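Troubleshooting log. The previous structure file for this entry was overwritten by mistake, so regenerating from the original sequence record. Sequence copied from the archived sheet and checked twice against the printout by T.R.
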Amino acid sequence: MSSAAKVGIFMLIILAILGYFILKIEDVQIGHGTGARKITAVFDSVAGLDNKSAVRVAGVRAGKVSDIKLRPDGKAEVTLDIDPDVVLHPGASAHVANLGLLGEKYIELDPGPANTPAIPQEQSVVLRGTQPASMDDITNQVAAIANDVKAITASLRGVMSGPTGEQRLVDIVENVRTITEQMRDLIAANRTNVDATMANARVVSESLRVEIPKLAASLDHMATQMSGTVGENRQDVRQIVENLKTLSADLKTTSDNLNAVTGQVRSGEGTVGKLLYSNEAHDRLTAALGSVESGVNELRNTLGRAGKMQLDLGLNGDYYAGLPETQNGAEKVGGSSRSAVWLRLTPNPDRNRFYNVELADTPFGKRNDKTIEETVTNPATGQSQTTITHQTKFEHAFLTSAQVGWNLKPFAVRLGMIDSTGGAGVDYFYNSRIRVTGEAFDFGHRTGDSNPHLRLYGEYIFRTEKPTTPTIFVRSGVDNVLNHTAFTLGGGIRWRDDDLKYLLGSIPIPK
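Regenerated output below.
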């Protein structure tokens, strides 16, 4: 089979695999579907929500977002395609939610009370949507709470500290003494009423003298019944009395402790006393609140830096046509293909600097030469014979690249290490889909070539990045044109990782 036929079969297989992944990623259904039900939801804001975001009912995926548009009144209108087996009732609502702390956003659909009649499938439905509180709202609330605590602390210090606070406590004690004296005078002034009450008590006692025999008989009968009851429950009654004694002792101890604590507070001793009478507690509380405010500001700055950061990951593979079987003493061990995984970090898109890191394998193996010297002695003659053997072995080798670059639109310039040697590269962006790249490296002839290594290729993006799918591209060009020219054909994918960038947000990277 010719090389052209092999390349054609290889490209057909790659295109079939890419087509399969595109159909799976884009959620394209082949044939006739079951017919999704379309409903409309109106939100004040749908920040972070995109087309094809999931629609869930009780956490279970039940549809997707098919369209988002802005209404004339400034609100967002979202069209939802939900499964026909989802039954909606009057009172149904929609809510923008997150999958975890940093997960993607989706629509949580509440079908409404199940005890109400269902809305017919053919009837149009317009729901009122809500959205969760943003991180800015939470930060503003924390700042407001810190201001309130500062105000309370200032009020306590102004009321209880200094000679004025001590005078207020003295006034409270004096008021209690005055009230006691007034109560004693009030009792003396109403002694006549007390005497009248005693006279009434004598009248009552005379009436009781007649009724006492009757009461005595009744009490005697009751005592007989209670005696039997107490006899049956004597042990329980004794236990209750013991519990009451223990409770009385505990209450006395508690009262003594309260008196001791009150004395310490009045004298300015202990934590509460120092809090009320010492400026040191106020200063420490103010310092703690300042630390909380500083932490909130640091958290806000960290989240802002992480939100601006862009982190792109990519995988690509290239088929090399025209490579020799050997090159500068190295043999092919990886076939005629080269694959790589790379990462691009842009700390701040408003500035023009970025960083590239790449790990790639090479078709040519790394040569390892080994010399084995073996000496054998003949026991009969006593003579020794030395044999020297040279072994050469080729193993898979990996190449690393690490560059710093600057965006000088429509060009991007990169300097650093390319394929484990020093070099530079230039990218020209013709438009949002077409890019032309040139790289030159190995100026010190480390690989044995007589001229520097020059690589030229063009890239075309036929599937742009979306919230749930990566960018897919194909590319072709020439490699090592100044030494052993090889034609390349390949492609790859790249996507933006919004989860990993928040983990890198706290790393101090120069702005």
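The mean pLDDT is 78. Archived copy saved in two places this time.
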